Amino acid sequence: MIIPIRCLSCGKPVAHLWEEYLERTKNGEITKKVLDALGLERYCCRALFLGHVDLIDTVARFKKS
Ligand SMILES: [Zn+2]
């Protein structure tokens, strides 16, 4: 859906890093280098970013009423 505000495992705030991560990886930067540059060192936070699929725009089309 949307990236969680904090890492679900360690509690580090990560949501503010998502836009930059998306932009930099879309522009062809190596994912490892982007994660390192953003300060995501623990593998729980890194896994959160690597496995995340942003579905909010898709889901938002199916509103109630
Ligand atoms: Zn974490």
Q: How do the strands and helices of this protein lay out in sequence?
A:
Layout: H1 18-26, H2 31-37, H3 43-51, H4 56-59
Zinc ion (ZN) binds next to α3.
What can you tell me about this protein's structure?
This protein is mainly α. It has helices spanning 18-26, 31-37, 43-51, 56-59. The radius of gyration is 13 Å and the shape is globular. The relative contact order is 0.22. The protein binds zinc ion.
Note the main attributes of this structure.
single chain, 65 residues, mainly alpha, 4 helices, globular, binds zinc ion
What string, H for helix and E for strand, traces the elements in order?
A: HHHH
Q: How much helix, percentage-wise, in residues?
A: 40-55%
Shape: globular
CA-atom Rg in angstroms: 13 Å
* Helical stretch tally: 4
Output mean pLDDT.
94
Low confidence ranges:
none
**Coarse structural class:** mainly alpha
Summarize the structure.
This protein is mainly alpha-helical and 65 residues long.
